[in-house]
Design goal:
58% helix; 228 residues; 5 strands; 10 helices; five-stranded parallel β-sheet; globular; alpha/beta
């Protein structure tokens, strides 16, 4: 049975970049799998992707507005930490190449995800925009009381699980498109990788950890990389 070492990350946390580097160096796996498709990797490497007009034609106006604001929301927090969103994924690929390890892009193609966002009801898109706006303004939190979060560190598993449950309840279609359906794709790809490699380090956003573990439970031996 293959061993799968999960490295849960926050896409704008400096701790995530350090954890990824240390995990790959310490575990010395046969393969490093990342929550990216090849298009997103090229974007992270070159910071250049499809034009906004091309994306808007693909997604439609309302979905494009959600997409842009989600990017701005992530970049907003990235500026606060000094970490470009996705830096930990880029670090994983570069460290794997430096060590001569296989690299696997296990996420669903971004074009498919964008098309699925287009089908989400407008009412739910507007609700997401309102929640994002209130979060930036600091007037709503998905917890029973205000919780201080260090953006430079990966949140605790308890906070992540509570937040994902809130997300699933309040925005079920977004949760399905952005989380559960991608969990299924990544789990399926990891099952195939486990047939070829004995030890895999898998770098994923912390919100995907629980779902992917449940999907892969009988196929691999899990190890969770301890936070620094």
């Amino acid at each position: 049975m293959a061993e799968l070492i999960i490295v849960p990350t926050s896409h704008v946390a400096g701790q995530s970049v350090a954890n990824v580097k240390h995990a790959i160096e310490r575990e010395n796996p046969d393969c490093v799998a990342v929550e990216l498709d090849i298009s997103r990797y090229h974007y992270l490497r070159e910071r250049r992707g499809e034009s906004p007009f091309t994306i808007m034609r693909t997604m439609g106006v309302s979905a494009f507005l959600v997409y842009i604001l989600l990017k701005r929301f992530q970049n907003y927090f990235g500026r606060k930490t000094g970490i470009l969103p996705g830096s930990e994924m880029r670090e994983a690929v570069e460290k794997a190449k430096e060590m001569g390890l296989a690299v696997a892009f296990v996420d669903q193609p971004i074009q498919i995800t964008l098309l699925k966002i287009r089908t989400i009801p407008l009412r739910e898109k507007m609700k997401l925009l309102w929640l994002l706006a209130k979060s930036v303004l600091g007037i709503v939190w998905p917890w029973d009381k205000r919780v201080e979060i260090d953006l430079n560190r990966v949140p605790s598993k308890g906070i992540i699980d509570y937040s994902m449950n809130y997300f699933r309840k309040e925005l079920p279609n977004f949760y399905r498109v952005l989380v559960s359906e991608r969990d299924e794709v990544m789990a399926r790809n990891l099952k195939e990788l486990s047939k070829r490699f004995n030890k895999i380090v898998c770098v994923i956003g912390a919100g995907h950890e629980t779902g992917m573990k449940n999907l892969l439970r009988v196929n691999v031996k899990f190890k969770r990389y301890a936070m620094a």
